[in-house]
Amino acid sequence: VPAVKSQSGSIIKIDGSSTVYPITEAVAEEYQIENKGATQVTVGVSGTGGGFKKFCSEDEAVRTDISDASRPIKEEEMAMCEAAGVEYIEIPVAYDAITVVANPENPIESMTVEELAQIWDPESEGEITNWSQVNPEWPDAEFVLYGPGADSGTFDGFTDKINGDEGASRTDYTPSEDDNVLVQGVSSDPNALGYFGYSYYEENQDKLKAIAIDAGEGAVVPSVETVRDGSYAPLSRPIYIYVNAQAAEKPEVAEFVEFYLTNAEGLVPEVGSVPLTPEEYQEGIARFQNGETGTTAAK
Amino acid sequence: MAQTTLKSRSRQIYKPKLARQVKEKVIEFILFLAAFSSVATTVAILYILIKESFLFFQEVPIVDFLTGTKWTPLFVNPQYGILPLLSGTLMSAGVALAVAIPMGTIAAIYLSEFATKRVREIAKPALELLAAIPTVVYGYFALLYVTPFLQNFFPKLPGFNILAAGLVMGLMIIPFISSISEDAMSAVPVGLREGSYAMGATKLQTALKVVFSAAISGISSSYILGTSRAVGETMIVAIAAGLRPNLTWNPFDQAATITAFIVQVSLGDLPHGTIAYQTIFAAGLTLVLMTLLLNIIGHFLAKTYREIY
Amino acid sequence: MVINNSHEQITSIPKAEVADLDFYYGSFHALKGINMTLPEHSVTALIGPSGCGKTTFLRCFNRMHDLYPGNRYEGSIWLDKDTNILGRKVDPIEVRMRISMVFQRPNPFPKSIYENVAYGLRVRGENNRRLMDEKIEDALRVSALWDEVKDRLNESAYNLSGGQQQRLCIARALVADPEIVLFDEPTSALDPIATASIEELMSTLKDRVTILIVTHSMQQAARISDHTAFMYLGELIEFGRTKDVFNKPLNQQTEDYISGRIG
Amino acid sequence: MVINNSHEQITSIPKAEVADLDFYYGSFHALKGINMTLPEHSVTALIGPSGCGKTTFLRCFNRMHDLYPGNRYEGSIWLDKDTNILGRKVDPIEVRMRISMVFQRPNPFPKSIYENVAYGLRVRGENNRRLMDEKIEDALRVSALWDEVKDRLNESAYNLSGGQQQRLCIARALVADPEIVLFDEPTSALDPIATASIEELMSTLKDRVTILIVTHSMQQAARISDHTAFMYLGELIEFGRTKDVFNKPLNQQTEDYISGRIG
Amino acid sequence: MPTTNLRKLRTNLNRRKLINSGFAFLGATIIAIAIIILLGLTLKMAFQGAERITPEFFTSFPSRRASRAGILSAWVGTCLVMLVTAMAAIPLGVASGIYLEEYAKKNWLADLIEINVTNLAGVPSIIYGLLALGLFVYELRLGQSILSAGLTLALLILPVVIVTTRESIRAIPNSLREASYALGASKWQTIWDHILPYSFGSILTGVIIGLSRAIGETAPIITIGALTFIAFLPKSPFKSEFPFLSFEWLQAPFTVMPIQMFNWVSRPQAAFEINAAAAGTVLIGMTLGINAIAIFLRYQLRKDIKW
Ligand SMILES: Nc1ncnc2c1ncn2[C@@H]1O[C@H](COP(=O)(O)OP(=O)(O)OP(=O)(O)O)[C@@H](O)[C@H]1O
Ligand SMILES: Nc1ncnc2c1ncn2[C@@H]1O[C@H](COP(=O)(O)OP(=O)(O)OP(=O)(O)O)[C@@H](O)[C@H]1O
Ligand SMILES: [Mg+2]
Ligand SMILES: [Mg+2]
Ligand SMILES: O=P([O-])([O-])[O-]
């Protein structure tokens, strides 16, 4: 990115989901180029939960203007926001597939949802440690698990959909809010298994292998198509940005959000995620311009 | 010389007394405040750590904290046993010291007793550069160069492991040991050395039997310093040793240290006031107590083995 | 130019012979053409004004100058007529095992009294405890220290007084049966009483070893030595029996020094 | 117990009078009941064996002992009969402005020659360049250094030889017109030629100031001083005109020392 | 001496000399190995990063595309943070050093300060990060700003500055102090006119070494929360209207070199590994450059000052 001299004022603070991060980072980068640095944008990666904790913070020094989220806001987070007097506008920005990955040297190609659940079940902790315990056809070797930390929307989504209970997971794995660490781990260990947002797999296909997931209707590998047509189940989901409604009244924030939604269609695939349809983006812009606060996502 | 000039002279020099004394006192007070700021820093560190840890220990029994074998503070059924982090910390420090103490000591003896002045003047600052390299760079070395290299010999070595982090940390700690030990050995009076040579001792005998034991206080404090560096080192382990709290004594395994845990949680930017936020202070307090303990041991060692020559 | 106004009457067998010795600290010519014999089983004193080269000369005998770079010997010092101490092929460590040294300030090692004396044996690889005990007791007795320390051999040597420390250093120098012992102003850091006890020691020591001692006190030289060498500006001016040198010096400079006119 | 075998013939006006002075380094009683007068415009030498307290005594005159904790004076030193230097209310800084000092080893500041001398004026807040130039030239002339340094006043003082450095320190001590100058073995670190030039200086200085000098060389004391005080083990044993003290000492210890039997 | 005896002596001597040379070889080898490993790793990194080290690398902001990403915001951030660190640590540390060395009486308070400084020097840097998070960010509400980071690193290197100040002051011979006092100088005059000017160079050396440590510190800065995408520069400290200085930059969000490198290290794409290597090389270059200045200063001082 060519240098842009800093001149003026306002800073837009963004934090939250690591899954959304690549998209927001790309948008922020393009926006600042276009904008010649008039408005400055910072983007942090704290995970969806970590992002909401800041977004809904009572402390204005910490509070962010926009929060990236790979799942809808939770009840307790709504309560926090309410307590802090924060109103928000929820806007979906892309689709994601939680991708289960293994090292390319691993012979396993697909797993059923039950097998996945068995590997990640809290009960399995310390008990199930070997591939062959899950499926006798699998190699007789100890597996090593990598996954997002507990502040992560991906973690919530995965545990909800696989283990049937949000947050229920074994804990003897390497957790990190930073998905890059997980990619590092899985790619350097033949017996590793991990999961994270699709774009991190997409960017590292040479080092990772996506496991096909069989939810009863045959094994499906995640891809733009299988996500769009809904066949990659149950691990597909929309991902969002949450905009502070008060901040949205500031022209630079409004300008940024609109820039985000008009350019997302081009930038999302570039960073390896699955874009919404143009109509869906139009809907988002409308929601934003009308200032429709609250969440619409079905719980 | 006339009496009058003497008188006037004395009057002249008696004059500015009060103003000068006030000025001196004010300056002394300002300097005192500056010196006291370091005490204030310590108080602030302890205040912050103890305040947050106090809240933490209202939720978590201290016995569970000290004896629990699982550290999963961010999960649904959080467990707060510090032992896994402690084992990671001790293991990585252990590997580092196993490298740094022998190498550092031998290097120090070589530099102070064997090397010519020219060699010493080049080799000592060159070794000190090892400590000048930013630790994040060492972390990079460990993760991207040392681990793959070690995997050539140990194919089962995971991508994150204590061994590579410890080895690289050991390299970094060498100069803390070699420089301070060398200083201590150089400070041994020539008289003692000559006393030994005059008995027909070789350089090695002089170095090991006379110089080393005369400088034992400085040498032991270099070991202590090296140990507290190893225990408190953060970036190397955070990057290369893995982030999984793992109660293990196997250096080929991955394990999180106390410091790595703090970094990991800080990366997630925990908000003020949650128990997750307090865990890093409780972990930090543990770390500070460990280094404090090391310092006290060092103080005692220095007292018992004070250089007496 | 070598000035050597030796009196002729030296009677005892020579233990060492210095021949045309020159010594350089880098480019500084510190000793100039020294010729002298060191009579066996006697005490030879080196006197002269400060900076004249006494210490420098003494330290040639056990090759101490080898420890520092830039120093250079020329000429020779023959030990027992067969070994040139300064010879290129002679190992300085071997020289030091045969010729030991006591320094100006007592320099015991930071070890126990026993270990200090034992050090002279240990460097030779001696480990036999019985033999060591014997030799150490002997050395401490000869150094007139045994009675004072026999009950606290394991205490640190630093607990001893300055005079005791110096006697300990003498014991350490004696324990491995050296042939010559060099003393560099051994009493200059001590009080008069400690000095007296060390001076007393000297006379008994010469039955065992040959002694070369540097002293800045003419009185001390007169009291304890059999022969005296007077040095001035790096040269040996006069050498002979102590009573001759002091009572009828051959050289004007010696006389000036002895009568206090120079120095 | 105060021993004070002063000869009676001291004639000049007293510049300072020491009355019952005791001094302690912590619990060590270093000076014991000293009584003495310092005659104005003359050179008084302090002699005695090493460790007898000469330096300690000298440093009482400008309260140098105040710089270190644990030191204690008792008794008094009256300056011009009206100020007790050791008085509790007297500011040591004022004392030092009136009584300056030259040390054993030359200790010029690592500054230019000019600034070294100027410092004596600068501490008093003097900044007038003309006046300073004048005073500095005068001080350097009196110290017999002017001709050697007048063309290089801005060079570092460290480029001077040892003897020149010591003369520079003398100039520095003189520049602010002190009443007394204390010298602590000012030539002991110098070679004979430099020593001679400093000794020569002394006699011209006493027209301006009163001098108290410590020396370990009796010859030097005899050469340059008008009065001599002999100290032994912290006591003042004998004090009188130099020729009296050296030729007919009243006290046995003085005689022993002068004849070289002790020390 | 009988020849048998002499022969025994020589055998023993030869054995000892052999062990001696063996050790000398071992020592030299160990030092060489340590330095060679360091050199090897550094060079490997430098070669890997070399292709990225172009002028654009220094004038570009970070980017999602590795080949376009640069370190502009990082090195500017590092310089600004170091500025705050130096402004805070130097006066505080030098004043403390002077107090401890020249004023402090031997009492419990002085002992306390002294022991405390030694202890602080051993406190891990991440703990300073926790202090900063609790104190600067949350209690004093300085935010995750350049000011917070600079002050944190200042506290971190304070012991280094204090210790070197003390050592430099102690190296000044007492005779110079006495010379000054004997001329009637007061304590502060002695310190200001002599002690400080004569020790200035070595104090500076120590401060620079302290800064070279601070420049690579990552953990405390992560702890106060500085790992973000920053593609802009803080406000300039100079402005056109009166009073021409602006302190808004102190409050600005920022990133620094080691953080930028850490960010790139943890990205999995090989292209970013090149960026990380390039940033690491630049970072080492900065550290070595600073150390070289310190070594040069120390050498110059040794040459000039001889007391
Ligand atoms: N290491 C050295 N390098 C250079 N010159 C030296 C060294 N040691 C001594 N000298 C010089 O050599 C000369 C002789 O010194 P030496 O120490 O032998 O004198 P000395 O007679 O023992 O004097 P003293 O009675 O003061 O001990 C002196 O001029 C001294 O300055
Ligand atoms: N700072 C000190 N603390 C304790 N004792 C001291 C101190 N300085 C000197 N002394 C002791 O006080 C006594 C007198 O010392 P002083 O330095 O005055 O002797 P001196 O006559 O000047 O000797 P020299 O000729 O060696 O300089 C000595 O016994 C000395 O050990
Ligand atoms: Mg000598
Ligand atoms: Mg003295
Ligand atoms: O970082 P997350 O997208 O998993 O919340």
TrEMBL record, chain B:
Q: Which Pfam family, any one of them, does this sequence belong to? A: BPD_transp_1
Domain ABC transmembrane type-1: from-to ranges: 86-298
Q: Which GO terms describe its molecular function?
A: phosphate transmembrane transporter activity
> What coarse category fits the chief subcellular location reported for this protein?
membrane
Tell me which GO cellular component terms the UniProt record holds. plasma membrane
Q: Which InterPro entries match?
A: MetI-like (IPR000515), MetI-like_sf (IPR035906), Phosphate_PstC (IPR011864)
Bilayer topology term = Multi-pass membrane protein
Q: Show the CDD domains listed in the entry.
A: TM_PBP2
Job description of the protein: Part of the binding-protein-dependent transport system for phosphate; probably responsible for the translocation of the substrate across the membrane.
Q: Which family does it belong to?
A: Belongs to the binding-protein-dependent transport system permease family. CysTW subfamily.
By what name is this protein known? Phosphate transport system permease protein
Could you tell me which species this protein originates from?
Waterburya agarophytonicola KI4
TrEMBL record, chains C, D:
Which GO terms fall under molecular function for this chain's record? ATP binding; ATP hydrolysis activity; phosphate transmembrane transporter activity
Instruction: Give any single GO term for biological process.
Output: phosphate ion transmembrane transport
Q: Does the keyword Transport apply?
A: yes
| InterPro entries named in the record | AAA+_ATPase, ABC_transporter-like_ATP-bd, ABC_transporter-like_CS, P-loop_NTPase, PstB-like
A single GO cellular-component term from the record reads:
membrane
Q: Which PANTHER family match?
A: ABC TRANSPORTER I FAMILY MEMBER 17
Write down what this protein is called: Phosphate ABC transporter ATP-binding protein
The source organism is: Waterburya agarophytonicola KI4
UniProtKB/TrEMBL annotation, chain E:
Q: CDD domains, alphabetically?
A: TM_PBP2
What's in the keyword line of the UniProt record? Answer: Cell membrane, Membrane, Transmembrane, Transmembrane helix, Transport
InterPro entries associated with the record: MetI-like (IPR000515), MetI-like_sf (IPR035906), Phosphate_PstA (IPR005672)
UniProt record, GO biological process = phosphate ion transmembrane transport
A Gene Ontology molecular-function term?
Answer: phosphate transmembrane transporter activity
Q: Which residues cross the membrane?
A: 23-43, 72-100, 120-138, 145-165, 219-238, 274-297
Record-level GO cellular component terms = plasma membrane
**Compartments reported by the entry:** Cell membrane
Claim: Translocase is one of the keywords in the record: no
Entry keyword annotation includes DNA repair: no
Q: Which PROSITE patterns did the record assign?
A: ABC_TM1 (PS50928)
How does the protein's chain sit in the membrane according to the entry? Multi-pass membrane protein
Q: Which residues form a coiled coil?
A: none
Outline the extent of the ABC transmembrane type-1 domain: 75-294
Instruction: Give the record's family classification.
Output: Belongs to the binding-protein-dependent transport system permease family. CysTW subfamily.
Q: What PANTHER family does UniProt report for this protein, alphabetically?
A: PHOSPHATE TRANSPORT SYSTEM PERMEASE PROTEIN PSTA (PTHR43470:SF5), PHOSPHATE TRANSPORT SYSTEM PERMEASE PROTEIN PSTA-RELATED (PTHR43470)
Protein's name according to its UniProt entry: Phosphate transport system permease protein PstA
* Record gene name: pstA
